[in-house]
């Protein structure tokens, strides 16, 4: 069975401004990779990492590169996948979170609600699970690192626990230094736990 580790991207300008990003590729802050150093310390205890995947958004790829450098894996190819993107907030993207939730009160709360020009949490969760299942099918007994977004980790965890995805506040669910360990089997997340 493959073992997956997931880390969140570094702190972005939209994170500090309390704006929703989704598919908007907001840059990392000046100190945005400081929390990544804590994630690296958690990951450096692993005996090996066989593959590194990242969301194709810049904030995740840059963080994945920083982690690879910190672990001495500079030669390791980082495979970027759009299936690992955060939820598409559509017209709510780049809005202040408080304003977006007033305008679209079901946003991030109703699993089957899509903001104008965006996608539902359900769609994002199915996309994330399918992407991880595709990665899983390519390896045997491998250790795989995924660098993505808080929403992706929330999607995986909700699938594991059976919790309704809309009950989670995906934009605040996981810190920038959070690292999770998880497994997948038959398109279901069979374990999900924090690495401390």
Name a few traits of the molecule.
196 residues; alpha/beta; Rossmann fold; six-stranded mixed β-sheet; 6 helices; globular
What does this structure look like?
- The chain is an alpha/beta fold.
- It has a single domain, classed as 3-Layer(aba) Sandwich (Rossmann fold), CATH 3.40.50.1240.
- The chain is built from six helices and six strands.
- The protein has helices spanning 13-16, 34-43, 58-70, 97-103, 121-136, 150-161; strands spanning 3-8, 51-55, 78-81, 143-148, 179-185, 188-194.
- It has a six-stranded mixed β-sheet, sandwiched between helices.
- A hairpin with a 2-residue loop joins strand 5 and strand 6.
- Helix 2 (34-43) crosses helix 3 and helix 5 packs across helix 6.
- It is globular.
- 42% of the residues are buried.
- The model has no long low-confidence stretch (mean pLDDT 95).
